[in-house]
Amino acid sequence: MASLDQPVSELPKVKPAELKAFHRLEIATVRDLLLHLPFDWEAYGAPVPIRGVAPGAQATIIGNLVKIEARRSMYKRKPMTEATLEDDFGGRLKIVWFNQPWLPKSHHAGDR
Fold it and tell me: Which of 28, 61, 95, 99 could disulfide-pair with 83, CB 3.0 to 4.6 Å?
């Protein structure tokens, strides 16, 4: 078992690239690793209706999936998933995910 003052370089299965990242983050010991906490986060606030969101703005929206389907893009035939989300006020939003072809198996029309 590792002690809190043990260098991270002595931990099992730590790769050289990870050690380089630890050094860059000034993480030298197990204690440093455990106490390395995020210093920032993004907060989007309370949910808003779709019609109240300005183009390009970040927001929290709650709604029901009306439609969701996986397909391939016209350009380079990359997998993409398209969905339509409808909020409680009748606003609709088209959502697109790239390289997530499994989403229609885990999310279905009617899901909130």
Answer: 95
The pLDDT profile of the chain, 112 residues, written as one tens digit per residue, is: 669 999 999 999 999 999 999 999 999 999 999 999 878 888 878 999 999 999 988 899 999 999 999 999 888 889 999 999 999 999 999 999 999 999 999 999 999 9
Who contacts 38 (Cβ-Cβ below 8 Å, separation ≥6)?
A: none
Q: Where are the domains of the chain?
A: 7-41, 50-106
Global pTM reads: 0.61
